[in-house]
Amino acid sequence: MPATADVRRAADRGVTTTPWLQSRHSFSFGDHYQPDNTHFGLLLVNNDDIVAPRTGFDTHPHRDVEIVTWVLEGELTHQDSAGNHGTIYPGLAQRMSAGSGILHSEKNDSLTQPVHFVQMWVIPDETAITPSYQQVEIGNQLDNVGLITVASGIPGRDAALVLHNRAAALHVARLPAGGSVDLPSAPYLHVFVARGDVTVAEHGDLTQGDAVRLTDADGSRLTAQQPSEVLVWEMHAKLGG
After folding, report:
1. Which of 1, 22, 39, 190 would be a feasible disulfide site paired with 233, CB 3.0-4.6 Å?
2. Closest CA to 132 of 97, 103, 168
3. β-pairing, 161-162 with 148-152?
4. Quercetin 2,3-dioxygenase C-terminal cupin domain: which residues (predicted)?
């Protein structure tokens, strides 16, 4: 079956704006509920956030969700009720498994610089697992032209971070102008342009903030038109089956 593509433009995302936050939502989130846009494959959340200096998300709860955070600019400080504490910056991959329940905060401690990051959520295979936290420096790997596997639960896959979902993996590519990668073949593929402009063969051009949702993805070639960074979720199942 040939791949089908659903292109979602940056300007069509829901936007939450407060004095300290600008958050753009690829899927229904918070007050931005769309019954026909609650997820794709196993991906529940793809939030593109900018947090002002000396502000951030106060302590709040999560349960039964795998949260992966990828920082594009600035630094984000994480602290949680399990005693984990870390500062996330470009090139440092982070995953928090909320499991049976956890409280955490995310702050921009800089006095002057906003922090820009993408936060993504998938569900775990099992509910009520023990909460856990992981962060790994992978910045040196991003100098190679290719897809780097940031997080995966797929058996046999090497990744910086462990996901508690056996059907999902997140890849990232940081590409120079003209650089190309072959996208994975998978039943569900979510390609998000975190920065830059790219072309996905047979599916068209995408610019910063755009995404394409591919069903029965067949390994299309992605080419950067300028220096670009893309986040690619490879998923071999969908919610509910």
Report:
1. 190
2. 97
3. parallel
4. 156-235
Binding residues: 60, 62, 104, 106
Q: Is the pLDDT of residue 1 over 70?
A: no
Q: For residue 12, give every residue at least 6 positions away whose Cβ sits within 8 Å of its Cβ, in sequence order, or none.
A: none
pLDDT in tens, 170-200: 999 999 999 999 999 999 999 999 999 999 9
Locate 69 and state its tokens.
């955070």
- Do the domain assignments include residue 223? yes
Helix intervals (H) in the chain: none
| Within-domain flag for 240 | no
Output the DSSP codes for 96-108: EE-TT-EEEEEEE
The answer to the question of residue 174 being in a domain is yes
In a domain, 129, yes or no: yes
Per the annotation, binding residues for Fe cation are 60, 62, 104, 106
How many domains in the chain?
1
Q: Rounded CA gap, 202 and 155, in Å? A: 30
Average predicted confidence (pLDDT) for the chain: 96
Give the tens place of pLDDT for each residue, 28-78.
Answer: 999 999 999 999 999 999 999 999 999 999 999 999 999 999 999 999 999
Give bridge partners of residue 74 from the DSSP assignment. Answer: none
Q: Is 211 exposed, middle or buried, given 0-12, 13-18 or 19+ CB atoms closer than 10 A?
A: buried
Count CB atoms within 10 A of the CB of residue 52.
16
Q: Are 37 and 45 in contact (CB under 8 A)?
A: no
State the residue range of the domain holding 44: 4-235
- Give the domain CATH number at 91: 2.60.120.10
